[in-house]
């Protein structure tokens, strides 16, 4: 059964990856680079300072950073445990897929997915009472994880599991944030 699931994952990856259109390659390569999202990170920080007084904003920011760095560390531990080759490094797939990037690390699960969903979910949980529009922030991690399949470096299961792990970490850290925040505020 596990082999069948892995086969479906590979087939879905090949299908989604091959939907790519060459004239959009530059867009997806740009989107998949975390450095290009730095203005969005600063926007998230700014939202905290617009929504709360400086102490609570700083407190929120510190918990956001703790969430992201914790999920990032956990992701790297799991990658070292599962040691799953990325699609772009899998000899059976090289002739079947479009490869726009060639990282050499392991695939399971996606760090882009886990960290972006952890950050976004934490920001949404903290700010959802301040703005109903904050849910639009989920556009970022969705585009971000789609780019990982498009550029040929993650299977769909990598990004889905990463998304779920990121959301779980965000809820855990939001719970801790509320618990710690009661003592401070």
Automatic annotation (TrEMBL):
Protein name: Phosphatase PAP2 family protein
Pfam families (alphabetical): PAP2
Keyword Transmembrane helix applies: yes
Residues spanning the membrane: 37-54, 61-85, 105-127, 134-153, 159-177
Gene3D superfamilies: Phosphatidic acid phosphatase type 2/haloperoxidase (1.20.144.10)
Matches recorded under InterPro entries: PAP2/HPO, PAP2/HPO_sf
UniProt entry keywords in alphabetical sequence: Membrane, Transmembrane, Transmembrane helix
PANTHER family (alphabetical): AT30094P, SPHINGOSINE-1-PHOSPHATE PHOSPHOHYDROLASE
Organism: Christiangramia fulva
């Amino acid at each position: 059964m596990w082999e069948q699931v892995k086969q479906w994952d590979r087939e879905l990856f090949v299908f989604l990856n091959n939907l790519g259109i060459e004239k959009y390659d530059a867009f997806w390569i740009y989107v998949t680079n975390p450095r290009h999202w730095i203005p969005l990170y600063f926007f998230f920080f700014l939202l905290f300072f617009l929504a709360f007084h400086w102490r609570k904003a700083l407190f929120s920011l510190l918990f956001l950073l703790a969430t992201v760095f914790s999920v990032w560390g956990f992701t790297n531990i799991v990658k070292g445990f599962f040691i799953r080759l990325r699609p772009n490094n899998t000899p059976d797939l090289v002739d079947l897929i479009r490869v726009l990037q060639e990282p050499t690390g392991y695939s399971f699960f996606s760090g882009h997915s886990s960290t972006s969903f952890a950050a976004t979910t934490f920001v949404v949980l903290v700010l959802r009472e301040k703005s109903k529009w904050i849910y639009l922030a989920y556009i970022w991690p969705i585009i971000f994880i789609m780019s990982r399949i498009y550029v040929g470096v993650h299977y769909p299961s990598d990004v889905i599991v990463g998304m779920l792990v990121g959301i779980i970490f965000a809820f855990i850290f939001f719970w801790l944030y509320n618990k710690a925040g009661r003592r401070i505020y």
